[in-house]
Amino acid sequence: MEISNLSSEVQAILGSVSSIATEVVLGLGIILIILLDLIRYGKEKKGLNLLALSLLGLNLAYLAISIPVEGQTFLGVLNTITKEKAFLILIDLIGVFYVVFQLVLGKPDIQKKNNKLSGEGETLALIFSIILGLHVLIKANNLLLLFIGLELISLPSYILTAFRFRKVSGEGAIKYLLLGVISTAIMLYGMSWMYGIAGSLNFSEVTTALLQQPVEISTIVFVFFLAGLLFKLSVFPMYFWAPDMYESAPIGTAAFLSIAPKIAALLALKHFVDGFGVALFEHPIIPNILIGIAILTMFIGNVSALGQEGSRRMMAYSTIGQMGLLMLVLFLDASLNYQTMLFYMTAYAFANLVIFMGVGILEQRKDSDRIASFAGEGKGNLALGIAMTIAFISLVGLPPFAGFSAKLFVFTGVWSAYEQFQNDWLFYALIAALINTVISLYFYLKIPYQLFIKELSDEGFSLLKREKSFLILFALPLIVLFILPQILI
């Protein structure tokens, strides 16, 4: 009987392996990249990049042709490809863009030793580890898998932050690590309470059990649990690490970490909150805590960005403000929330890619990320200036770019949720979002103002063809998605 049971379990595992095919590819990719780098094949720059692009392309092809099966899981702990499919595609696309990003910028952040690039293989292996963690986090329906996904993201991120081999990078990585450890410890404490209350690690059973507890207990436990996800989202009160990390990390890493982990963390939080269903608003405190965090985060991010003189720190606070607004998607109608989140994150991702690539190019040429040092460079490099201006206007939320549609979907969705649940905090959040949109207009136009209005302070420079091409390529979706939002909605 035992052999029969073991055989059936093995068959069940093998039968569901196809549901984690993309994660298997990523795991094998990590091993292959490390092995090829060890046997010195990785010393040829194109070799490892080609391997990384091929593996990510394989994943994208599989995701594109796979047929979603609603409710199917891998061993009961990982959701298979259903409504998460589009987010997985977006994550892997961002991985592709990271590799392209590094190729376009010529890997300026990786230290050179004896005229040979050092750290390239390790960087790609760590990026693949993060992408694997993002996949696990997006698919998790279990507290243990959620924790594993977060750690697969966090540990490589701490290392990548220090990859500029400078003192400031080490300081930024240490701050990032210490705050990450604290948030993880708090989250684990909350998870232990959840398991004790529910007797289960599954999201649906945990949320059901929480609603049956006294308000004080359920609120405290939920707040502890939130710590780890809020840290990844860089929202109040777990945002302090972001400016230092963005300033100290390699520009490509900062771009990647400003987008990909946010998508997965917010989606994981959405999956957990969905377990409450409409009963969420029956709880007198939990929804108000989430809305309050969103409002405070918007104001902290946007107001703090106003006084920044460095482009990296400004973009860090920009990300904080954007995540505050995006948290409001948690309360949208079930028929719209995932589509709205996907549209917003896609528009946000392309805008950030353009801006970070532009900042990376300017930083290389000017040896500074100070906004004032970019003066006049847009006049001689129209592709750079126009692409960055499009991206900044999209982040503000003005037409005719995708950011306008994204914010419109969020605003109308929040208003509908307010009408449905009559929660005053949703109305306050909508007003706060509108006010912060106006505030963001000022600092988002700082760099375009320097690029086109100010005069050159030195000789200037010319863009390479590949730099022009990819700036335009990354900016185009911001126009296309405004004209054809039905592509994602």
Question: How are the secondary structure elements laid out?
Answer:
Blueprint: H1 2-15, H2 21-38, H3 45-65, E1 73-74, E2 78-79, H4 85-104, E3 112-113, E4 116-117, H5 120-139, H6 143-161, H7 167-198, H8 203-211, H9 215-233, H10 241-248, H11 251-257, H12 260-274, H13 286-306, H14 311-326, H15 337-366, H16 377-380, H17 382-396, H18 402-421, H19 424-444, H20 446-452, H21 465-483
Antiparallel strand pairs: 1-2, 3-4
Task: List descriptors.
489 residues, transport, single chain, mainly alpha, 21 helices
Question: What does the model show?
Answer:
73% of the residues lie in helices and 2% in strands. It is an all-alpha fold. The chain has a domain of 205 residues. Strand 1 and strand 2 form a beta hairpin. About 3% of the residues have low confidence. Pfam families: Proton_antipo_M. Its main location: membrane. It catalyses: a quinone + NADH + 5 H(+)(in) = a quinol + NAD(+) + 4 H(+)(out).
Structural class call reads: mainly alpha
Helix content: over 70%
Main sheet summary: 2 strands, antiparallel
Total DSSP helices? 21
Q: Regarding quaternary structure, how should these chains be classified?
A: single chain
Q: Catalogue the unreliable spans.
A: 74-78, 108-117
As a percent range, the share of strand residues is: under 5%
The N- and C-terminal alpha carbons lie at a distance of 51 Å
Q: Which sequence of strands runs across the widest sheet?
A: 1-2
- Number of DSSP-assigned strands: 4
Radius of gyration from the CA trace?
22 Å
The dominant shape is globular
SSE run: HHHEEHEEHHHHHHHHHHHHHHHHH
Mean pLDDT: 85
